[in-house]
Amino acid sequence: MIKNYATKYFYAFSFLITLLLSNVSQAQTTTWTGSWDNGNPDITKDVVFTANYTSIGDFSAKSVSVSNNAVVTIVGGLTPNTLTVQDNITIATGSNLIFETNSSLLQINPVATNSGNINYKRDSTPMKFFEYTYWSTPVSGQTLVDFSPLTSPSRYHSFNSTINNWVNESPTNIMQSGRGYAIRSPDDYTSTPQAFNGEFIGVPNNGNIPTNVIAFNPSLLNYNFIGNPYPSAISIISLLDNSNLGTMYFWTHNTAIAGNVFTTNDYAIRTRTTGTAAISGGTAPGLYIAAGQGFFASAATTTTLTFTNSMRVANNNSQFYKNSQVVPLNYYIHLNLTNTSGAFKQIAFGYEEGATNGYDFGTDALASTEGAITFYSTINPYTFGFGIQGREYPWNLNDVIDLGINATIAGDYTITIDHVNTFFDSQDIFIEDTILGTYSNLKTGPYNFNTAVGVYNSRFKIHYVNPLLGNNDFILNANSVFVNTNNNEIEVHSTSQKIKNIQVYDILGRLIFDKKDTNENKISITSIRKENQALIIKTELENNEIVTKKLIF
Known about the structure:
It contains 3 helices and 46 strands. The chain is mainly beta. The strands form 10 sheets. Strands 32-34-39-36-37-40-41-44 form an 8-stranded mixed β-sheet, with no helix packed on it. Residues 19-27, 254-264, 321-326 and 470-479 have low confidence and may be disordered.
């Protein structure tokens, strides 16, 4: 009898355990058959699609399975969605998991196994015939020709950093994850710009993705052509903090092609803390690299770079060029140099934690040498200029930054502030023209100047205090006369000798201002109208020394 009761209790207990396990298993799975049979998906549930589905927002899953010829679409466009998956993704033959442009697939487990192909769509910025876009595949198994079948067979390229040159790729080659590829627009494109609707088809990349990089040599400019290997954006900060990369260059193809030749005018630059727009204009790169984006980067050493899942981020997938983050405390000033003929160059300089006033790999970026005029800051003892320069923080108010130009076309140019960090909102920024001996406050307006053809490595200096206002910490050469403009006023200041006489002439040699026996160190002139005219200021000091200065006012 006891044995029979024990047997009955054993079977009852086994049935209860089986029932509980069945309920637990059921609680971990939700299936879409036109509606969810076990509640909305979340990161604890295996999500199964057996019917067509279009996302209505971001959602998560423990795993994802698509079968029964179902078509699952993750919405992109202006309000893109992100699918976050903890583990495996399985797409059965005949079924589809489609990611529209700007949408994201974020996977957490770096060793999760994916099977079956996704369709990852990525629209380029508008292109014309002969123009290129830099791509990188977010899937495995994608061939070049299947991605862009109407591109000329000789117009698929990768870059060999060892020989520092482009390499032709066979159209049937499989795109290697982590590498960059330059692909020309389809042969049926015309002079009217149109977006290329790219579609990567293959198994989604996940986990560690290695690619080789070569150490950067400033004399050779041997950058590495790599790319984001995931179907989601990656963080620039995380990539730089977990690799040996320094500066990144994103191709924008803003400039119309001439004679089938492209220039480096179209590279936007990004370091860990800031970015500058391309010479040809456009936007500066942000903090994220979009899915499918190829780019050039400098590397500190020759090694294997490994992309990891920890670099991936949800959303932030819309800035694609033909390209909450923890960053060091930094404050930057962005200046634009332009002329009326369309020349453009943007540089940035500023102050950040961890930087020095010398060259810092990954913080300081070389300036492009292309264009009608090159604009750059300098760092001793280097002979080349910098498009981005970070200096030590906390800063010294009396810091001085040398700016240079290399003009291939003579004429009139303008320097303006593009934007500053909030730290500089209430801080004056003076530009000294060492040729004219003038000071102008860029916070109150642009600075206009004229230049001949040539290289002027220290024509300009940036100050944060105006030496003409008598700051005792600012040391000038003795017996120097400086001219400063302040709105509609011209200020002439002698640092040691008092001014005895002063005359101002226009470009035709006509005397338009004359003041004698002033016996002062500073003269303010308010009677001359500001008309962007060239003036010659002749100052006679009390020791009878005569100093002549030129000014655009």
